[in-house]
Amino acid sequence: MIEGSTENATLVTELIVGLRERGLDVTRPILVVLDGAKALRRAVLDVFDRPVLARCQLHKIRNVQDRLPQKLRQVVAARMRRANHADSALAAEAELTTLAAELDRTHPGAAASLREGMAETLTVLRLGLPPTLARTFRSTNAVESMISICREHAGNVKRWRDGQMALRWCAAGMVEAGKQFRRVNGHLQLRSLRDTLERVTRPADATRHDEDVQAA
Question: Do 32 and 137 touch, CB atoms closer than 8 A?
Fold first, then answer.
């Protein structure tokens, strides 16, 4: 945790660097699910060597809806959800591209929002994650749930003295949230995800070398 009032680049970079300094291996590939915040995305790219970025599909749907009249919001959201659950990332991208083209004529702002970061909203599909993991990594719901529990926990405080007190209460709320989380009981699935991340982030020259060895 880090004390701050906004998600600016300096703050979030300091937070992630702190994870590295406390032992997080940033040289290994890691799947990072983001809400679209540019400062956080920049910090992840600067600190991690091999990040695989995924955008929260729920945030993207809300962003597009915010640029539409009320009568179209549910219709467009339903089409986006259907695309996000397509059989492949290629099929999903085709559906979303078609939808964006339709919106171009009447609501170009919504169309632009839909196209922005589209590839990263389909990362879960592209990785071919099994349903259990896909449900977890499609959105930032896990961390949003933790934040909600922290806020509820801190609601008991009537007077905040200083930042240290805020950090302590936030930490206590995170511990409480951890007790309520469902754990992913899929070691083979997680191992498969790890292997997939290794493959998709492998440098091109290393891939060619492996192919040469196998051919030999």
Answer: no
In a domain, 211, yes or no: no
Write the pLDDT tens digit of every residue in 16-42: 999 999 999 999 999 999 998 899 999
Rg (CA), the chain: 20
Q: Under DSSP, is residue 139 helix (H, G, I), strand (E, B) or coil?
A: coil
Count of structural domains within the chain:
3
**CA 135: distance to chain centroid?**
12
Q: DSSP string of 21-56?
A: HTT--TTS-EEEEE-S-HHHHHHHHHH-SSEEEEE-
3-state secondary structure of 213: helix
Residue 159 and residue 98 share a domain: no
Q: How far is CA 137 from CA 52, 55, 80, 172, in A?
A: 12, 9, 17, 25
Out of 55, 74, 96, a domain closes at: 55
Domain that holds residue 104: 57-136
Indicate whether 56 pLDDT > 60: yes
